[in-house]
Amino acid sequence: MLMSSYIIDSFYRCLVCSIRQNKTDERRFSIYTGTKKRLHLRAESGEDRTTWLGAMLAVKDMYPRLPNSEIMAPVVSVVISTDKLKQRLLQEGLSETAIKESEDIMRAELSTLHKYIVALKQKQFMLIDALRHLETDKVDLENTVVEDQIQSKEEGDSFLSTHEKYSADGSASDSSDEHDRHDQSDDEDAFFDTSDILSTCSSDHMMSCHESEIEDETNPNSIRDSISAVVPVGFYYPNIKRRNKLPDPVEKENGISLWSIIKDNIGRDLTKVCLPVYFNEPLSSLQKCCEDLEYSYILDQAYEWGKRGNSFMRMLHVAAFAVSGYASTRGRSCKPFNPLLGETYEADYPDKGIRFISEKVSHHPMIVACHCEGNGWKFWGDSNLKSKFWGRSIQLDPVGILTLEFDDGEVFHWSKVTTSIYNLILGKLYCEHYGTMRVEGNREYTCKIKFKEQSIIDRNPHQVHGIVEDKKGKNVGTIFGKWDESLHYVIGGNSDKGKGSNVPSKPNLLWKRSPPPEYQTRYNLTQFAITLNEMTPGLKEKLPPTDSRLRPDQRCLENGEYQMANAEKLRLEQRQRQARNMQEKGWKPRWFAKDKGGNTYHYVGGYWETRDKGNWESCPNIFGQHSTDNDLNPSP
């Protein structure tokens, strides 16, 4: 037998050692000594390894470990004698009745104590058993990591070969299933460590594509369109001062356990249980939709690239915008407020050049529609969520199509990927996004973006990788990075691999996440999200009575008035239970309408014109305390 890299200079006890076989090499195996040292061994052949393993296990079986049942033997039934107590009480002259009552009291107390000790023993048994399972899992994980490191060193793949491998796999696989949770295709292993690849790339390469070239599909071997002189001018917006922190809380917030709430409501209809605002963040789902526009400047740049005839760079920027909307979800463990039927939200941001309007258009199912106007583009869509509860986690599958249209007629469509929220009962909450997103254009290019699902031993989570294809299905570019950090792109593919005609360019920065705000809270809101619920001077008089900023429970939560927030939330949820009846009686949204023959919604217009006039008579007072059913229905 050959030792891997060192000579054994001590001995180890078989009783505490464990043996693991290498799955990739039939000659290798490892011995975990129970200390920090691990022995990585290699036999002369597979048969030799089998012989060694058999001999070691035989020796180990000669000294078996005691099973849990013997280590934690159950407490035997205890026989309680009261003879000494009875004799002592008789000496004191107590009656038989008093003595019998004293014996009963003592037996009851000892019985309770005995049950408590048995319960502690059982709990200790379970903890020891769980500890052994964890130790086994730990050894398995360590073994897997060691094997992966050894295999990685042996293979020594470079960035270019990894890029070519992924591009080949990605172009060959064109599955349209965006929510396949168990996709185990070969391209899973082709995700690469962006921190290693980009260590030599400067972040000021935002427009360094002017040093690169893009292959012209009319002559893929030599002709390329030079974009060296094209630097998007962009738009100049006014500088508007907005708040950079939430108000200081009025009251001290007390933590609440979700598990305790579930236990307290066993047997009750959970749909009628009002969860405390402790689990909410001071934003509504309508405002969460607006968070997707945080990096709207990417669409301004995409518009400029298209104006200058570069559809490829426009496609890259649209894909980056589609991914950037997930960046704000990092570290967000609280849920937004569920809007009331007919609730709206507007966002007028001259400093970003956008005007946004959203409305809750359906209660069952819960559907939110939105529309945004920018400089040279419009963005709209609607979505609802199909949820699956898995015990410790919940899976959310978005249903709906997002549409982006530029003034020159180029249109892009895409849908969001699956989101799962983990550790609902115990542990720290976190979310993960995974699946395939297809950004479909109506002209030259499409982009398929894969969000990699994080594994247990993944050292580089949140990775995304996208392939840009032309009308002929040829790979002309790649984007990669992390949805919560940044995206980079390279120009070129491997459609002519072997001829050296389509070598990828150096990675260039496409998008980078904004830094976190200076004043952090437990909600982990981004700087942009902090401004969404801000009531700027003079804004309240311009808002309709349905705007989310006027929702009392949400406003109280933002101000740190937690008792009032809980009371208002309960009141509004009781009112919201009328929404199903309203919808069945023919209620219709005010600013959106359903497309004929379809299930999608479109903006009917008129909101900003009505806002300029200040005429909100057609909008109901949905947050009012004494509103009637008729008051909840807007007039036509």
Automatic annotation (TrEMBL):
Role according to the record: May be involved in the transport of sterols.
SUPFAM superfamilies recorded: Oxysterol-binding protein-like, PH domain-like
Superkingdom classification of source: Eukaryota
Biological-process GO terms, alphabetical: lipid transport
Domain (PH): residue spans on this chain: 1-61
User: What family, per the record?
Assistant: Belongs to the OSBP family.
In terms of Pfam families, this protein maps to:
Oxysterol_BP
UniProt xrefs under InterPro entries: OSBP_sf, Oxysterol-bd, PH-like_dom_sf, PH_domain
Q: Name one GO cellular component term.
A: membrane
Q: Which organism is it from?
A: Lupinus albus
Keywords, A to Z?
Answer: Coiled coil, Lipid transport, Lipid-binding, Transport
Q: Which PANTHER family match?
A: OSBP(OXYSTEROL-BINDING PROTEIN)-RELATED PROTEIN 1C, OXYSTEROL-BINDING PROTEIN-RELATED
> A single GO molecular function, which one?
sterol binding
Report the protein name in the record: Putative oxysterol-binding protein
Region labeled Disordered — which residues? 165-189
